[in-house]
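Thread title: Can someone regenerate the structure for this chain?

I was given the following input by a collaborator and told the matching structure tokens would be attached. They weren't. Posting the sequence so someone can regenerate them.
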Amino acid sequence: MKLDQSNVGWVITAFVLGLVFAMGGMTLFKQTQPAPIIISPPEPTPTAVPTETPGPVQVFVNGAVRQEAVYTLPAGSMVQDAIEAAGGFADDANVAVVNLAQPMFNGAQVYVPFNAENSATPTAVIFTEAESENGRGQQASLSAEGLVNINSADAAQLETLPGIGASTAQKIITFRDENGSFGTIEEIMNVPGIGEGKFEQLRTLITVDGN
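Best answer:
Regenerated them for you:
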């Protein structure tokens, strides 16, 4: 085919139009392509750490109560709950020496003294779990005024005092074992970690009577 000047113009025009259509088609093709779908797995849900629920405690209540027996009490119970479980105080119970707010623990023994018991300072006796298991009769004592006797109280009872944790309670017991009974409540300041400030918190809550 022989191209003259007019044919060359048509060829060029056709080429340009084809190029334009081709580029337009490619642009349209790109625009109509669906966006890629990205599937992301969900973040793992944190596993809740189970909270340990305190179980019931078993305590032995005897002495001047209506019914001596072993009783099962809910966690958080106090001596008052133990006495109520035993039917209440007997008529001749020395109720003045019993600290009804004393917390209970598994394996504890609560002994309520009788009025007829002869003692310079009668005490309500609460044996610790370890003492009950070992069969030892060491007493964690409360005075007639409901004070903690620092000459006979065990670690658990000492820890009921304000500012006295497990470490300080053990220091008191160690000091007592090495140096003998406290002669006055002020002597507790000889125990490492107990200064005048802490003693002021304890002054009205402790005693050395009966030793």
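Helices lie at 5-31, 79-85, 129-134, 155-158, 166-179, 196-202.
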